[in-house]
Amino acid sequence: MHTRGCRLEDYARAKQLPLEFLKGLHLTEISYHSAPAVRIPYRDASGQEVAVRFRTALFKGESTDNRFRWRHGSTPCLYGLWELREQRDVVLVEGESDTHTLWWHGIHAVGIPGASVWKEERDAPHLTRYDVIYVVIEPDQGGESMLQWVKKSGLRDRVRIIRLAGFKDVSAMHVAGPEHFAARWQQALHTSIAWSDEVSTQAESARENAWGKCEELARDPAILDRLATHLPHVGLVGVEREAKLLYLALTSRVFDRVISVVVKGPSSAGKSYLVETVLSFSCPTSYYSLTAMSELALVYGQEPLQHRMLVLTEADAMASDMVSYLIRSLLSEGYLRYETVVKTTEGYATVFIERPGPSGLIVTTTRDSLHPENETRLISITLADSQDQTRAILDALAREDQGDDVDRAPWIALQQWIAASDAQVTIPFSENLVGLIPPIAVRLRRDARLLLQLIRAHALLHQASRKRDDRGRVVATLQDYAVVRALVAEFMSEGVQATVPATMRETVTVVGLIQKRHGSASVSEVAVHLGIDHSSTSRRCAAAARRGYLGNGEMSRGRPARYVLADPLPQEQTILPTVEMVAASIGRAEADVCTCAPEIAEHDTPLPNESKARRRTHKIPAWSSRAWRQDLQSRQDSATASGRRWRVRRWQGWRRSRRGD
């Protein structure tokens, strides 16, 4: 036997297949780089040779696998297409030798030249005519690769998984005893399992494994508060609410509708570090992070997007209209469907590409607002730019002895456990809650859905301490709403402009004070009064101007803006009802705020203190529809009159400057 290369006779002896049988399959022996090799031709369905693979060695090397080489210009494809017949089933195996073995035993089979070589649009059409596709999974990395592409393939519902107990592959089972092969093969077919059962088995195994690592964390009645205690140890200060909201959004990826978030703030505010840190508390398979991408990367990419968060470290990555449109479609529809034209050997042909979702988006930006169509699909978080926040960050940086010693293993296992769980949650008080939200803006139609999804995400996160209904769904409680309300009440009110951020109100007030003394205010003057940098002040003033609360009193083009007051600031208005209001609406004086599972009923967690949320919004009684309309009309009339008076004053000032007064 040759120490180098692979002779056809040696190959036949090693696989215990007749030499003449292999020659009948058009296998030949050639010289490849001065050593013998087996030439294996690949033919299409019509019998035409379309590719050639050389087997240059019988066995793998110690560190690398150098057994195979493709002829220059060959494109990999399924092996045995010319042998496919019209019948109910077919067997798919990895490699040519397993295919040869099955053919020798009269079994209808086709081979894939490497577990990771499968290409859906090229290979799947050849197998769509079969009702059952048996896929042999080997007990190695190749077998795992086979399972990965089966999971994403449109053929998966027809697949039955075969595992050969005690043997690496089909060829090894044949070599171990050709006379016993038929019986062993029939036993393998009998014990094969449908793909759906394989998925259930894998999910249950993954769930049990993850539960063993995260049980103590999963039973914590306040998981988000526990996350907040870790933040100072990883260098995050003053962003507890933002981190909790991001973690809830990340948890929502398992739902049919995923929550998306945009993190805004000036340069160096810590946006990217906040996102990266929160992501580190989840499994890598839960998100797909990019710094930039081409216009059609989402369409042609191979990275799975289903039930994952797409993370863009800068909104400029979605600046083009095409990327922005594709992301909107992915978020709204839950999938991408794209048809294009490609050039083939037979001319031009249309190709239909589908990328399944659902997916969510986490993006950071220095801009104050995104494209309007994108802005309404995301929860907007703005990081503080105050002196107090800067001081807290500087103090954290000065702690030299503080290292990142947080054990993230339980957190990663928790997300794996949630992903393997049944993500069905019911909110028994949803109608009562939504009925108490004043319908003052069209955007609330979308924001109310986000609110309910956040409640579901919080309940799912705490499913170990929640009851399930008779349909197996996790039952959300007012405890879940209380936590979510504290996180998003301010953001939702700002989103529909029912309230004004404290920073914007502060900025407008300072402009008013300066205007009384100097007639208008420059950005530099406002920055001095606020005690923050010029860039942050400019962003604040521009945001207030976009909302109509400030105007530019500078008439000359190219001159720096001189801000003046415009529309009056609105009165604070509560959008989300308090927990007590929701409890009263469902006819209970005291709500059962923590419905715990029987095995941990001792965790009787009280409602969280809502004092912080109440500081941000003023509590008002439930309004009637007439009251909403009257208040809205009153505020609109006031804003219109104020705007008219400001325009008249600006025109009078311009006339006086023209006359030289």
TrEMBL record:
Superkingdom of source: Bacteria
Gene3D superfamilies with a match to the protein in the record: 3.40.1360.10
Chain positions covered by the region annotation Disordered: 602-622
InterPro entries in UniProt: P-loop_NTPase (IPR027417)
Name under which the protein is recorded: Uncharacterized protein
